[in-house]
Amino acid sequence: MNFRNVTHCIFDMDGLLLDTESLYTMAYNCVTQEYDKVYTWEHKAKIMGFRSTDALQTIIDLLQLPISVQMFEDKLASIYQEVFPKCNMMPGAERLLRHLKDNNVPIALATSSSQESSDLKTQKWKHIFELFDHKVYGGSDLEVPRGKPDPDIFLVAARRFPDNPDPSKCLIFEDSPNGVQAALAAKMQVVMVPDPQLPKRLTTDATLLLESLADFKPESFGLPAFVA
């Protein structure tokens, strides 16, 4: 495979850096089962990467739940408070972020979560998330008008680097199909690390498909290689 060399890296968070997707599934099902409905991978694949309000409205529509987005959010809030602070990093994430930082590769976070939600999830990992040059919280950032699969969040993340790199010089790391489409719409290459349960037909558009961030070889994109 021939990849373009890049100079900057932009990372999604949920399901890529943090092992939160199973927690979302559990939380959503706690609510949907009140109405005898089950939230499945078929539904999950549609909303991965969405901002929270968009995701919840989609679930309400798909499952025909007799509640509003606000009611859904209220029911989820106490569950989130309990489970999100306990979430763990995904394999290879810390090593890769530290390697890029140590080699002066500019890195940014671009998550569809709000800053409030992100702060809750990263409580145990502040020392890791402080490595980022900057963070874009798509769920609460007024400069991100549209969520994934639109490219806005990644274009904003690129512009906020001090040297404002061309999008072609940015490499995106994602786990969701919507995130991959957002990266491609931004004219950026994208490394996808999908959940093993995600249907394979939804993983075909990424520039590079990996089972784990631990498998990433930075030199493939002209970045400094790991030292053995």
From TrEMBL:
It comes from the Eukaryota. Keywords: Hydrolase, Magnesium, Metal-binding. Its cofactor is Mg(2+). It is an enzyme of class 3 (hydrolase). Transmembrane segments: none annotated. GO terms for molecular function: metal ion binding; pseudouridine 5'-phosphatase activity. Gene3D superfamilies: HAD superfamily/HAD-like, Putative phosphatase, domain 2. Its EC number is 3.1.3.96. It catalyses: psi-UMP + H2O = pseudouridine + phosphate. Pfam families: HAD_2. Belongs to the HAD-like hydrolase superfamily. CbbY/CbbZ/Gph/YieH family. This is pseudouridine 5'-phosphatase. It comes from Ooceraea biroi (Clonal raider ant).
